[in-house]
Amino acid sequence: NLWRGGALALEVWVPGRTALSEGAEITLGALPAGVTSLGGYVGRGQSLGHVVLKAAADAPAGTAVLAALGKTNWLVRPVKDSTREVLSTRLAGPPVVGIVPSPAPVFIEPASAAVVEVAATGKAEVPLKVLRHPGCTEALKLKVLGLGDPAKAAEITIAAKAAEAKLTLDAKTLKLSPGDYVCLLQGTAKMPLQRNAEAVSAAQAAAAKAAEAQAGAKKALTEAQAALKALKPEDKAGQTAQQARIKELTAASAKADKARTEADKAAKDLAAKNAPKEVAFLVHSAPVRFRVK
Question: Contact, 290 vs 124, CB < 8 A?
Fold first, then answer.
């Protein structure tokens, strides 16, 4: 699933590659409304790569077929290292992505579009920008994917509540030869999630509207009562008309009181049934590009 404002990395197998194959970009078009591709890449000597998708904050909810991937192969069993193990797969149709009408807990991306360069014996330091949902405040522990065996992937910890971080990649330890590389971060993030959030918001909005109507009805009744007192004693016709008006407004005020009571109760009951619960999300970063000289 792809949450609004968040990223989703799709693992892509590129057939026909060998240990001598160079790194290659992976493009993906014909995406659903509100979804963009942040780019894709398969590393040097690897068959498994990633394409990263991002949903806009107002992306339409629903499911969409990624028609650009007309045919897909799904792994029959988990593979730790695609460069050393045989990939057992089965043919399937295009994948389907679900757009969730709720915000993602966090979105992580490089702070700059500039490609960081590092010597083959040095360490690349990539500044990161961390855009958090207000409910996502905990520290984040993420793995670096796309640079070899995932089981031996480097890790990064982003401090609690931090809006900035730094990814350090040791080119020597990773045994990276000169060339361009792309990686991404994957991990989990927790935050409270309210089910049926849109329905709860609608009920709360209806309760607020009922409160406004109640206040308006009371104001109209108070003004009518004041107008009755201002009439001269000899103005019998005016008094009769105003008293009739007050009677109508009194009934309208009572109706508004009842409507607000019912709306408040409906909103509170719905909120209670859908109280926020802490949920763990799988999160991915935008692609991180760097160059080994």
Answer: yes
For residue 218, what pLDDT is reported?
A: 96
- pLDDT beyond 80 at 89: no
- Kindly state the helix (H) or strand (E) to which residue 255 belongs, with its residue range: helix 236-273
Q: Both tokens of residue 150?
A: 């995932």
Q: Are 154 and 174 in contact (CB under 8 A)?
A: yes
| Confidence band of 202 (pLDDT split at 50, 70, 90) | very high
Measure the CA–CA gap between 205 and 39, rounded to whole angstroms.
39
Characterise 170 by phi-psi region: left (phi > 0), alpha (psi -120 to 50), beta (else). beta
State the Cα–Cα distance between residues 14 and 47, nearest whole angstrom: 5
Query: Which DSSP state fits 152?
Result: G
* Rounded Cα–Cα distance for residues 124 and 147 (Å): 13
Structure tokens at 241: 């008309």
Mean pLDDT value across the chain: 89
Give the Cα separation of 28 and 123 in Å (integer): 31
Biggest CA–CA distance in the chain, Å, is: 106
What pLDDT score does 73 carry? Answer: 67
Give the angle 39-41-42 at the CA atoms, nearest 5°.
165
The total of other beta-carbon atoms located within 10 Å of residue 148's CB is 21
| Residue 147, φ and ψ in degrees, nearest 5 | -125, 45
Report the DSSP beta bridge partners of residue 91: 73
Q: What angle do CA 70, 101, 108 make, to 5 degrees?
A: 80
What are the structure tokens assigned to 65, written together? 């077929």
Q: How far is CA 10 from the centre of its chain?
A: 16
Burial-class residue 83 by CB neighbours within 10 Å (0-12, 13-18, 19+): middle
Q: Give the SS3 label for residue 167.
A: strand
